[in-house]
Amino acid sequence: MNKPKMTTEKGVPSNSRVLMLLGQLEKLNGEAVLSDAEVSRHITSKILHLIQTQEKTRKEITAKGSSGMEVILASLESTRDLQTILNILCILNELVSVGGGRRVGVLVSKGGTAILLQLLITTSKEWPPSEELMLQLHTILAKVGPKDRKFGIKARINGALNITVSLLKQNLQNHKLLLPCLQVLRVYSANSVNAVSLGKNGVVELLFKIIGPYSKKNTSILKVTLDTLAALLKSKANARRAVDRTYVPTLLAVYQDWHRNDTRHRHVHIRKAILGCIRNITNIKLGRKAFLEADGMRILYSTSTECLSVRTLDPLINTSSLIMRKCFPKNRLPVPTIRSVFHYQLPHIPAEGPVAQLYRQPPDVDDVVDESDDNDDTEADTENDTENEEDEKNHKTQVARGGASGSASARCAAGLGFEYLATDWSPVLGVPLPPATLYCRNDDIETDISKLRPKENLTRPLEDLKMYECFFPELSENFQGYSFDSSKSCQTPAVLPKSLAPIVVPTAHAPSPLSLAQGELTDLPLDLDSICISKDGPGGAGGAGEGLAQELERVALEEDTLNGQSQSPVVGSLQGELEHDDDCSSHSSGELGVLEVPDTAALLPLHDPELYIDMVKGTKSVPQYTEVAYPDYFGHVAPTFREHILERVYGVQRAKIFQDIERMIHPNDILDKVVYDLDLKRSPVIDDGESLKFNSQFESGNLRKAVQVRKFEYDLILNSDINSNHYHQWFYFEVSGMRVGSSYRFNIINCEKVNSQFNYGMQVLMYSVQEAISGHPRWVRTGTEICYYKNHFSRSSIAAGGQKGKSYYTMTFTVTFQYRDDVCYFAYHYPYTYSTLKMHLQKLEALRTPQIYLRQDVLCETLGGNSCPLLTITAMPQSSSNDQICQFKNRPYVFLTARVHPGETNASWVMKGTLEFLMSPSPMAQSLRESYVFKIVPMLNPDGVINGNHRCSLSGEDLNRQWQRPSPDLHPTIFHTKGLLQYLSSIQRVPLVYCDYHGHSRKKNVFMYGCSIKETLWQTNVNAAACDLQEDLSYRTLPKILSQLAPAFSMASCSFVVEKSKESTARVVVWREIGVQKSYTMESTLCGCDQGKYKGLQIGTRELEEMGAQFCIALLRLKRLSSPLEFRNSSHFLDVENDLIESRCKVTSSTTYVLDEDEPSFMEEVDYSAESNDEPEPDPDPQETPADEDGLSDSELALRRS
């Protein structure tokens, strides 16, 4: 080692005493004279005394620029005198004992680890080795090791492992030396290779000689021993060795002993360390088996329940819970197959993809479980699950999405690491960027500039596209002979389709509201036309609450297609099957049935129960539904009260998991009674009069099976999308037969996502028929003790996309019913059926005034035979003059679509708000209609909506992944919607704006995804010339306007990055192939908002419809900003660019960086709460701009203030 020359830090007095002593020691290092040993002892003892008595001495030695540490290490390396070595080791121990990791880091950086390990080797060769020297050496190594990342490798290469093990074996009763040896062994064991080597040398067995029953003595030694053992047991080989030597029962017995005797909870750290050893053993299959055979479930369950009342024991409860969940035997999902109960035969099978694999699968294959559900030895509690939903399948994609606050680089730093930009973007942006600008390493981000640059690509011949000319009559209409003062409609109303099957209309009746004009209530049929709707208010004849105290019945409406006459309805009980009497046509049909319906006409102008039934008759479903859900029939009036995001009760998830574990410990308490099963085709409802009754056989319904596990607890299984074997998220079902005041727990047990907003305050929706008839027809957020966690039901590799060992997740909630004999409905989000859409569209026709141009077309027929509506809305020209007609024909197009994913019902509610605003008589709506022509496809996936799918159409595919190459046979709605856009492109009428309405299941607020070359490349390190990145930043204008108008909209959540995994979505294809620069996906939360006016509130239909209206107002402002008068002042667009640059370059502390999908953690541990990330959200800027001016450009503010 080169001899260092003594230097001092600037500001340290050169005449410092310790520095003088170090200088003398440095001189001795260069003189190899035997007589120097005494001098060395004297100098080092003085230095030790100064360090022990003066803190400033320690600072002088370890200060930056000082070579004191090098001199001391050089002396340690060169001297052979035992006392001098001991003095120097004491000096080093004093230095690293105080001052934290920085001083240890100085020692490591100066090569101290290698010198200490070499000294250990040298000392071990002497016999007997000096006990004091070994004590000091291991004491300092125990402190240095955790700070040296290569400590384990260095120790193994130098042969230090065996020396420490030998010393440990020889000093099992020497507690003074035993402790530092164990501490060093713990550091050795952190290296996996070392752990295996130490296991082969018998260290596991050696440690069990130290571990013993409860004792107040030597607790420090026991704690370090257990920590060392836990580190060794991370090795599968060591875990198997522990199982073979029956150490699992030993650990459980030791844990029980400490639990019994540590009544004052002073040794929780030891009890937790024992659990840590058990947890690592149970990471392997043999360990889990041994744990179960040793009655570990009962032991940990009983000890944990005794700890529940003490908050400080939560670490023990959480670790015990994790072990029990991991060891809980994997159960088979109680269904015959994970495929949908319903089957639809496709016209042809795709050549590849999940649908093709599904059809190629042999019919006798058991797709529910694999041959071995427990054949992996992976660490189950730390498995890396990924998002199943295809729109969010690549979690790295979410990390790369940056918002207006510059959070993309922040999220990248937190989740994927970060690097500095190598490309100089200053010439591109026109302003200098900070040198520390970050970009994300994300393989999903598109880096091919040729693919990023939009290119109009029709992909279909022009002759083929002419078929869409009929959908654009506004381009050729001259309005000659049209009376502009007339309110006569220029389109013929749609003809109502005939009934295709019997329809069951819900009626909840007592003798007073539902009566017969002649005679008593019998099986006599009623004429269809004789039923009238009674719309009494809450105070009317049927408004009293006792109306539902009697039996609930339904009316079956059936058309007699044999003789062309209307067949009368049959009154039947809920408790029995509805049967049709062939002779019923001979009965008199003069009776009058009264169906009690709350009077909501003033509040719901677009809802009409009679019209809804007519719409249902023309809706075709795969299961051929014959029933109508009460909520869809009565309608929904948004509540006037606020529904706050549910505050999570501490420990609720733990309590639910313990209840699940009780099923195994006390199996005799479990009923396991099937009460509803769609796999039983003839009679899915199993009614014994003692259980709840379930039903989902109505439009958009989804519940496959209900199993009663306890008196007031039910496991629910959702149906997968048709022609698919997954996508379990949307649910909509009916419950009846409940007891008032009893708390019912419902568990949806086959969820697939790794986390959910149900963990962050979202509640399920409930609709009470009793409430509806008493005058409050509404969906309300309900449920307590809501949580979402991994369960013990195994997913097969077929269900998990080829991955083995995956589990399903449980979403659980508790409800207490308020009314006797009520009928309640539960839904994932506010239902909006296809029949509801048809009803709303027909009611919109009645809102048309002579100033509104409204046209309804059928774009195409779906796979299931349902029509896909297409709307055209604009303003009628004021006259038939050439100027007016020219202005009419040259209005820019705005193209809107929604509901491509059936489970995202909030998209339909936003679309409803948009349509109502466009059809309203307000001056702003008229101005908007005069500015644009709106082409709207309000429901891209009618079949999926009708049949209760969550994400797919009847083809079993996500339609929002088919925009690149849609099939006219399998994806007709996408094929023809894209054809409309291509036709507009072919006639040089590319829409100004395209927006696809969606819902988001894992984020709060409303936000947009757009497309930008610059912002995409900002996330990469791709070199690009300025000429390749010429881009109008006005794509940010519409989201920015929305952020100032709509209280639910969050600009910070918006992203304009183009990912490879999204290249076949509507947003990217319309931007890239059609050339629409302002091409967006607008995502609405399913949960609520965490900013703005609605912060802390769950979102409702009122807020969603408001968002649809605000989108229209934003388009009007966009028109004003882009008009020639406004366009002369380009300061607005300059502001957009400046905002973009400032936000993009903003870099904050890395501790505030979070992933897009992160939520604030709860006090429960992360491993315990569905493995969600636990990083906190960045604190909002305390200096918020007023809502009405936030996001406005300087020019807009000037106009407003003037």
Please explain how this structure is put together:
There is one protein chain. With 1202 residues, the chain is of the alpha+beta class. The chain has 43 helices and 25 strands. The protein has a seven-stranded mixed beta sheet with strand order 19-20-22-21-23-25-24, sandwiched between helices. It has a six-stranded mixed beta sheet with strand order 8-10-11-13-17-16, covered by helices on one side. Helix 4 packs antiparallel against helix 5 (82-97) and helix 17 packs parallel to helix 20. The termini are far apart. Residues 1-15, 375-441, 486-502, 506-595, 1126-1134 and 1139-1202 have low confidence and may be disordered.
Short structural description:
Residues 830-1119 form the Peptidase M14 domain. The protein has 1202 residues and is α+β, with helices and mostly antiparallel strands. A hairpin with a 2-residue loop joins strand 10 and strand 11.
